[in-house]
Amino acid sequence: xxxYDFAPLWRSTIGFDRLFDLxxxxxxxxxxxxxxxxxxxxxxxxxxxxxxxxxxxPEDIGITAEQNVVTVEGSKSDKTERDFLYRGISTRGFxxxxxxxxxxxxxxxxxxxxxLTIELVREIPEAMKPxxxxxxxxxxxxxxxxxxxAAA
Length: 152
What we know:
The structure is a single chain. The chain has 2 domains: about 1-30; about 35-150, Immunoglobulin-like (Sandwich), CATH 2.60.40. The protein has helices at about 5-10, 15-30, 140-150; strands at about 35-45, 45-50, 60-65, 70-75, 95-100, 105-110, 115-120. About 20% of the residues lie in helices and about 30% in strands. With about 150 residues, the chain is of the alpha+beta class. It contains 3 helices and 7 strands, in the order ααβββββββα. Pfam families: HSP20.
């Protein structure tokens, strides 16, 4: 994959810091593909992240949601000494971060048969949702203004 240098853009833009950070993180994330994962859109405002974490137990995995980032970390504490003839199931430690859009929140997480699923929901506050504005009669509006001036 090609690497891009965003330094010239830093010199001539203001307020796009988060956008460039996301681009750089996406570039770095493509280099490491462990553990494999899927991101699904379940509905208009519902999403699901699924990570294949074979060999890990729920106690070995930590999920942190902070601002607009979900971090999934795993570390295997295999205390028993084993003599593997072949080791194909990787249990190395990992840290995977997912950047979330505004108003996307983590609702739940579940672990089943080596698959970790994280449910996400976008909940836009009522004040931010578009609302329909009723158009009143202009003569009624002018009447209210005249009444207000007369009362004052």
